[in-house]
Amino acid sequence: MSTPKIAIIIGSTRATRFADKPANWFLDFATKERPDLSFELVDLRDFNLPLFNEAASNAWMPSAAPEAQAWQKKIAEFDGYIFVTAEYNHSLTGSLKNALDQAYVEWGKKPMGAVGYGGVGAARAIEHLRAIAVELQMVPVRNAVHIGGGDFFAVSPLGQNGEMASIEGHIAGSAKALLEDIAWWAKATKAARG
């Protein structure tokens, strides 16, 4: 079996987003921690997705928008997904929800996890994300990375804007657990999909 390929998806498109810092940290951490997996950073900004306006989900008919088709082609390359998400008003970002809606077939029977950040570590956003993932027939994993409270303000421009290394000792355990979950499920679902 070939090495499972995991997308680390940046779920915010705002010009002033914080997501790049934890996403790049997680990519480096994951690459060092799990040589049995390959990782790629996927940025929603690169796809310029319109708001979902298809006649139906691509579970029922092909998407008409070329941007949606390009997005579907990209995410089909992967055997699992780790979403990097903020929490907006107790939920995930609108851009991430729209990106999830722009595909269906490509997500199915693959694991997903999350790295969340904000005052409460995006806990509520990640719970919403898991519920959406179930409907898209993904396999949500138990462990997640929550960058919240003092850790968030230590590395965020809203606080001290420090380096991610300054909080790595606090979040490395959950990052390893998330990667263990993703690795197990990516290998199992990849084998089952053939």
UniProtKB/TrEMBL annotation:
GO terms for molecular function: FMN binding; oxidoreductase activity. InterPro entries: Flavoprotein-like_sf, FMN_Rdtase-like_dom, NAD(P)H-dep_reductase. Residues 4-148 form the NADPH-dependent FMN reductase-like domain. Signal peptide: none annotated. One of its GO terms (cellular component) is cytosol. This is NADPH-dependent oxidoreductase. It comes from Paenirhodobacter hankyongi.
